[in-house]
Amino acid sequence: MTSRRHFLTGLSTAAASLWVQTLRAAPDPKKDIIIGHGTFRYKVNKDWVPAGQGRHHPILNCHEMVQAKDGRLFMIGDHASNQMLIFHRDGTILESWGCVWPGGHGLTLSQENGAEFLFVTDSGLWKSGNGGYRQTGRVTKTDLSGKEIFSISHPMNVGAYEPEMFFNPTETAVAPNGDIYIADGYGSQYVLRYDSRGKFLQRFGGKDNVPAGERLNNAHGVAIDLRAGADKATVLVTSRAEQCFRRFTLEGHYIETLPVPGCMVCRPVISGQELYAGVCWSKNPELNKLPNNPSGFAVILDAHGKVISAPGGTEPVYSDGKLVPLTRAEAVFEHGHDVCVLENGDLIVCQWNAFQTYPIKLEKLA
Questions:
Q1: Per the CATH hierarchy, to which homologous superfamily does domain 31-364 belong?
Q2: Domain ranges (residues) in the chain
Q3: Closest CA to 187 of 162, 208, 165
Q4: What's the pLDDT band for 19 if we cut at 50, 70, 90?
Q5: Which of 154, 197, 219, 313 allows an S-S link to 297, with CB 3.0 to 4.6 Å?
Q6: CA-closest candidate to residue 350, choices 331, 336, 364
Q7: Are 12 and 287 spatial neighbours (Cβ–Cβ below 8 Å)?
Q8: How high is the pLDDT of residue 295?
Q9: CA 320 to chain centre
Q10: Helix-strand-coil percent breakdown of the chain, rounded to 5?
Q11: Roughly how many angstroms between the first and final C-alpha of the chain, as a whole number?
């Protein structure tokens, strides 16, 4: 008690309050945990993946997940011997495979003439033991069995980058016409556009020598927004360090910014009229003073870019038209990295750096 009292004395009132709230946030395992706000509230199911699955399907980090038409859920991770895990809707792991994407990070599902394909993004950043390594990343198009169709590697090969520029992509998106958009979120911070066969078309974005309002800093995710119709499609790009999403035309012209203050958001996931994203951690000066920086929740934005729910986070409050910075409110997630929205509105949340645990299911309340 004495050490806690001395610790609190050295904090500001706000930081001390946040630390106490964090201590109180540990849920009672005997009770249902309900998180979220408004009409987007969920019951937490941490046991969605049955016990014992790790014996044959070990994991390190759960990065991104997509659902195929047949209901199977594909998840990319970075375990040395099985980077792709395939789940049944009930959480049972059907199979796992893949040992060529040590930096497995992004996963996108595309449809072409009724057939489904995966775009696997290997960031080129990976760990082995206590060491961390960087190599050139790549994006690989495969069928649902993992058969490679083609790969896209360092953009210097097509004259888009200089040889010394890093290429460590984090995510892809596919437009209705088949164009591929690659977010180089751990590399040189550009969005690279290719046609459906992998021919380079253009690059846009970037961190340096662009207006501050358009800057991409940790361009962690990318998605094609079709909510206004295919003829008005736009590109949403995460600028995680800026705590926002940037919107561009399909040709890369800046349109607007969707701010999410306090949230180091991952990729944008669009389902219905809402935008979902995992929050890896809170970016808040007060939280940096805490012994364990509270991390991990999710956010849901409406079609106008307003946050309407933050499952696991504080309630969204707007003051003078601006969102009050969000933080974690419930100790449910560790570093929320992706949200997969199921057809019934349930969510599967993938986590990074979460003690090698499987995804958590959020069951939507009626």
A1: TolB, C-terminal domain (2.120.10.30)
A2: 31-364
A3: 165
A4: very low
A5: 313
A6: 336
A7: no
A8: 81
A9: 29
A10: 10, 40, 50
A11: 43
- What is the predicted pLDDT for the residue at 5? 41
**pLDDT tens profile 274-324:** 999 999 988 766 655 555 555 899 999 999 999 999 999 999 999 999 999
Q: Tell me the chain's radius of gyration from C-alpha atoms.
A: 20
Q: Find, among 329, 228, 321, the residue nearest to 270 by Cα.
A: 228
Give pLDDT, residue 293. Answer: 58
Cα 239 to Cα 85, 128, 173, 248, distances in angstroms: 28, 28, 15, 12
More confident call, 179 vs 55: 179
Residues in the chain: 366
**Is residue 28 pLDDT above 60, yes or no?**
no
Structure tokens at 66: 């997509």
Place of tokens 């008005």: 232
Q: Can you tell me the distance from the alpha carbon of 332 to that of 340, in angstroms, rounded to the nearest whole number?
A: 17
Distances (CA, A) of 150 to 41, 103, 118, 362: 41, 18, 11, 35
Tokens linked to 23? 């201590």
At residue 148's C-alpha, the angle toward residues 143 and 150, to 5°, is 110
Dihedral sign, CA of 119, 184, 313, 304? Answer: negative
